[in-house]
Amino acid sequence: MSESVIDIFREEAREHLSALEKGFLDLETASAAARRSLIDSLFRHAHSLKGDAKAVGLLPLKEAAQILEDLLDALRAAPDETNPERINQGLSQLDQVRAAFETWQHAGRVEPSVPTPNVDVPRNATGEPGSVSPRTSDEQPRVRGLTPSGSP
User: Fold this and answer.
1) Which residue, among 73, 79, 18, has the nearest Cα to 47 in the 3D structure?
2) At a CB cut-off of 8 Å and minimum separation 6, what does 53 contact?
3) In 3-state terms, what secondary structure has residue 10?
4) 46 Rama class: left (phi>0) / alpha (psi -120 to 50) / beta
């Protein structure tokens, strides 16, 4: 792949990552009326980053961005269910996306060991990302393949 294509990807990825971080922080204080357009913008940035990563062959980065995109798709389906926990899930996954990008920046490649958790994305009855009943405050976030200490 040509160096100019990689340079373009690098610059656009930085822009998407910055926009995603700012958008999630703005989402914390957004009015109900502003949420939908903000979530749509976040989704577009995650989707573009995912596609760009796939185009340049950075599959672990693409996979991390896909998880973020799924989380945002669930928020798009139910913007009124946006709450601090779901925003924190998004920011946490954004950290994973950024880690994959930074690893590639410094090493020239994304190592398979870059953690990309399988976050449980809220799904509707058809299995599509969407609205589900919110968790109660005493429930722990669920990550497939991991159990809290003391759990079977």
Assistant:
1) 73
2) 9, 13, 59, 61, 62, 65
3) helix
4) alpha
pLDDT band at 59 (very low <50, low <70, confident <90, very high): very high
H or E element at residue 132: none
DSSP lists the bridge partners of residue 123 as 129
Every domain of the chain and the residues it spans: 1-152
Q: How far is residue 109's CA from residue 59's CA, in Å, rounded to a whole number?
A: 10
**What ranges in the chain are assigned the alpha helix state H?**
3-29, 32-55, 59-77, 84-107
- The pLDDT tens digits for 64-121 are 999 999 999 999 999 989 999 999 999 999 999 999 999 998 886 544 434 444 455 5
What CATH class is the domain 1-152? mainly alpha
Instruction: Using alpha carbons, select from 97, 121, 100 the residue that is nearest to residue 47.
Output: 97
The model's pTM: 0.72
